[in-house]
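Appendix B, example 12.
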Amino acid sequence: MSMQVHTGRHSALAAVIRQEQRIFAAKLRTARAVLGWSQTDLANQVGMTQRAIHKLEQGETEPRRATILAVAEVWRDQGLVFEDLPDGTFRLTVPASVVGADTRRRTSRADEPRPGAVPVYRA
């Protein structure tokens, strides 16, 4: 009987961890989309590889505490504020300076938007 209780607790804890990984992954993708950043852009900001960001965004790996703190610092620096809601979802507050700015990193003049064009951000 005690083995079943232990196994039940373990699977419940594992489910919570998986849910937290999925929420963190969704936050990463959402923040990148709002900022207009690629996975490489975010990786450069937090000192990781693009592949590591990809794995985090897929929910494949549990983020280390240092990773969570580094990402949170980047979000804070950009003025992004995530609020975790009681139903397991989250709300993102984006400052007007980010909404009105094109924060993508451009590599060539071909990437410049046409006058009057509305920027499109893809996650």
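Residues 2-111 form a domain with the 434 Repressor (Amino-terminal Domain) fold (CATH 1.10.260.40). The beta strands are 81-84, 90-93.
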